[in-house]
Amino acid sequence: MEAWQKNLFPIVVVQAIMMVAFSSMSPFMAPFITELGIVDPQAVKIWAGFLTSINALFAAILSPYWGSLSDRYGRKIMVVRSTMSIGVLLTLLTVHEDFQPAAAAPDGNKKVRSRSPLATFRLFPVVAAMFVVLFLTQFSVRSVEPIMALYVEEIGAATTSLNTLIGAVFAVTGLTQTAGLLVVGHLSNALGYRKLLLITLLGSGLLYLPQALVTNVGQLMLLRALFGFFLGGILPMANAIIGAMAPQDIKGQIFGLTSSATFLGNFAGPTLGGIVSAYFGIPAVFILTACLLLVNAWLVWRRIPREGPSQVVS
Questions:
Q1: What is the number of alpha carbons within 13 Å of residue 39 lying toward its C-beta?
Q2: Could you tell me the sign of the dihedral formed by the alpha carbons of 184, 190, 191, 197, in that order?
Q3: Residue 146: what pLDDT?
Q4: Cα 171 to the chain's mean position, in Å?
Q5: Which of 149, 144, 165, 145 is nearest to 41 (CA)?
Q6: Separation between Cα atoms, residue 157 and residue 214, nearest integer Å
Q7: Which residues pair with 104 in a beta bridge?
Q8: Which of 9, 48, 140, 252 could form a disulfide with 30 if both were Cys (CB 3.0 to 4.6 A apart)?
Q9: Taking the CA of residue 34 as centre, how many other CA atoms within 13 Å lie in the half-sphere pointing to its CB?
Q10: Distance CA 52, CA 306 (A)
């Protein structure tokens, strides 16, 4: 068994635990805010968006810094730092890394190229394009999360089973997202990262629009299930493109930069989603999100080269 295969299982477990921890709060933020005494519908939507997104703002600010450190000291130590008490033991005991720092400079000092985000964007235009793609993707996906509970209630869910239905709406999306990820991963070698990214973005955008028109929870769950299948392929294909095009010695910097885009989307999506829903209604958020995902697909079609991504950056 190769080293990457030995690393895959513990990394998947650590990532799964982290995602469970981070995502368990979002579905029930709006009901919790109501329990705290905020009863005005507009205020609940705005606060739900803000509280769901605020941690992502600080993650976005720090991601490039951690990415740069990973190029100097190794990726494993950065995983340990980020997971800390949740995954620290599993990572230390089971993940193996043969980290090779950058080659020594003529004077004997080891140096890693470090660039500002703007310099990176100028030197690698595709990184700038993928930054926007990741930002818009996360903005779109996260914009409805803080208000989904209110939407389930608005379309007629029974009060006695409201929390169960809210959890089910999120759960069905996650299950089909996992299935979509597996299918996309299987097809990636045959169809290519760019084509699959286009397909998943188009499918997600087209399935978001009718969610604004549902009249009951069953319709919403069906559309969320179909949407999740396409959603599962977006981030893996986007990150595969970035990984293929990034030079090895600054791969951490580039992933840190694109991770900032993801976290900025996580911050801006819930915040603006809550504001838009407060003033224009919850369906307006679904319509806005659908449009952004379709714009995202257009951006990939125009800005990501058709040839292999490994040729984009020398």
A1: 1
A2: positive
A3: 79
A4: 17
A5: 149
A6: 12
A7: 110
A8: 48
A9: 13
A10: 37
Q: What are the tens digits of pLDDT across the range 27-76?
A: 556 666 677 777 677 777 676 666 666 665 656 565 665 666 666 656 66
CATH, residue 13: 1.20.1250.20
Write down the pLDDT at residue 271: 85
Estimate the crossing angle of helix 145-154 against helix 162-191, to 10 degrees: 130
One-letter amino acid at 125 equals P
Where on the phi/psi map is residue 157: left (φ > 0), alpha (ψ -120 to 50), or beta?
A: beta
DSSP H or E stretch at residue 130: helix 125-142
Query: In this structure, are residues 146 and 269 in contact, taking their beta carbons and an 8 Å threshold?
Result: no
Tokens of 287: 């319509």
Residue 188 included in any domain: yes
- Closest Cα to residue 293, out of 77, 97, 139? 139
Residue 293: other Cβ atoms inside 10 A: 28
Give Cα separations from 228 to 133, 140, 169 (angstroms): 18, 13, 11
DSSP 8-state symbol, 103 = P
In one-letter notation, the amino acid at residue 132 is: V
Place of tokens 């599993």: 90
Other residues' Cβ atoms within 10 Å of the Cβ of residue 39: 9
Expressed as residue numbers, the domain containing 27 is 3-96+119-305
Identity of residue 272: L
| Total of domains in the chain | 1
CA-to-CA dists, residue 64 to 54, 260, 271, 284, angstroms: 18, 7, 22, 33
Residue 113: inside a domain, yes or no?
no
